[in-house]
Specification:
The protein has about 260 residues and is of the alpha/beta class. About 35% of the residues lie in helices and about 20% in strands. It has a 10-stranded mixed sheet, with helices on both faces. Helix 1 (about 30-45) crosses helix 3 (about 70-95) and helix 5 (about 145-155) runs parallel beside helix 7. The chain is globular, with a radius of gyration of 17 Å.
């Protein structure tokens, strides 16, 4: 059987901290970590150049700490350090599957990872290595969504893949409204105007300015990363298309 043909040559995959644990849990779930690693290995074997930006919310959420009185900058730096834990865990899991991997961080910590240097990251990608990008942008007040949009733009990715715990972008929060509609495609502007929270506003605006499409899909369905890479019609495409299009008959029921 021939391998599926990838639609994209270079992609940036954004995985939130919640992607590393069971839904509603915290820390790192070994089975979920291996699922991410195997899916990443599979698309690496297709010849797709893969960069991954990881969040850290399974350990620390800077905005939550700030709401409880901690200084926002300190809370955000703690969140950045939490992303490094996920990056190192994913690196170890990938290398156990014989995938050559590099971790780069926006905060200098030379004993555990390379510093983020754009040209070096590009060279790793061109050599077929998976590059894991940690510590966000290295600055407080910016989310890892914004870091993903920034790195995807810098590295010339064909698409930003936003891995989530739901099937795509909905007209309302599907966890609170079971009749929420799943969009097949929506524009950047509609996403911002309707405050749909597919990504934070800064990230969406940056992608819009640079005409970088965003694909939002469910990470917890095994094989979904490869399906998206190969162009199967799953999840939601955020782009400059004209009209948001609900997927026929799709709702949040059963999630």
């Amino acid at each position: 059987m021939s391998s599926p043909e990838p639609r994209y040559k270079r992609v940036l995959l954004k995985i939130s901290g919640e992607g590393f644990c069971t839904q509603g849990g915290s820390g790192i779930d070994h089975d979920q970590l291996l699922s991410i690693a195997r899916q990443s290995r599979d698309i690496n074997r297709l010849g797709v150049q893969l960069a991954i930006v990881v969040g850290g919310g399974n350990f620390v959420r800077g905005d939550a700490l700030a709401r409880h009185g901690m200084g926002r900058a300190t809370a955000d730096y703690m969140g950045m350090l939490a992303t490094v834990l996920n990056a190192l865990a994913l690196m170890d899991a990938l290398e156990s599957l014989d995938v050559v991997t590099r971790v780069q961080t926006a905060i200098h910590m030379a004993d555990v990872a390379e510093p983020y240097i754009r040209r070096r990251a590009l060279r790793h990608l061109e050599k077929g290595r998976v590059v894991i990008l940690a510590a966000g942008t290295g600055n407080p007040y910016f989310t890892t969504d914004t870091a993903a949009a920034l790195r995807a733009t810098e590295l010339g990715a064909d698409v930003l893949l936003k891995a989530t715990k739901v099937d795509g972008v909905y007209s309302a929060d599907p966890r609170k409204n079971p009749s929420a509609t799943l969009y097949r495609q929506i524009t950047y502007m509609n996403c911002l105007e309707q405050n749909l929270r597919a990504m934070d506003g800064t990230a969406i605006a940056l992608c819009r300015e640079n005409k970088l499409p965003i694909l939002v899909f469910n990470l917890f369905v095994p094989g979904n990363v490869q399906r998206v890479i190969c162009g199967e019609p799953i999840g939601t495409l955020i782009s400059e298309g004209e009209t948001p299009t609900p997927r026929s008959g799709s709702s949040a029921e059963g999630l």
